[in-house]
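Protocol step 4 of 5: obtain the predicted structure for the target chain.
Materials: sequence only (see below). No template structures provided, no constraints applied. The aim of this step is simply to have a reference model before the mutagenesis design in step 5. Sequence pasted as it appears in the construct record:
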Amino acid sequence: MQKVRIKTVTVEAPYAVTGNRVLRGLKDVDVLLYIDLHVIDANYLKGIKKLTRFADAAIADWLHISPRTMRSYEAANKVFDKKLSEQVVMMRAVFEKGNAVFGNMEAFDTWLDTGNFFFDDKKPSSFLDTTSGMRYIFDRMTAMEYGDNV
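Step 4 output (structure tokens):
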């Protein structure tokens, strides 16, 4: 029997995050790899709730679950299926970026809850119920970081 040596390679992944941030970007590959490498459970919901003043009912509505279901997930520390995992991870990334861009949760929440020209005079928060909407909000905040008026 011949011994085989396997080479170990260390790769710094672009989606790996230091500190408390979940994701730096919302590219499909980043989100998919993050979900594949992490167990997404109710602790991620708790993280979202710490980043915003929005009520449980609003967060549950954006995730297309009832507030009661959300509370039961938190109580049982439920591990989410892939679809809900994707939404929760992306939403948490949006709130983390928003708090970083705006400096605090109050300013970001106010921006989310105010009609905006770039969102067809709708509140940006009304776009949080789809992954495309979350990406759009994330992209608008990236534009703000580079000096765009949003």
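Step 4 remarks: The radius of gyration is 17 Å. Confidence is low (pLDDT under 50) at residues 4-19.
Proceed to step 5.
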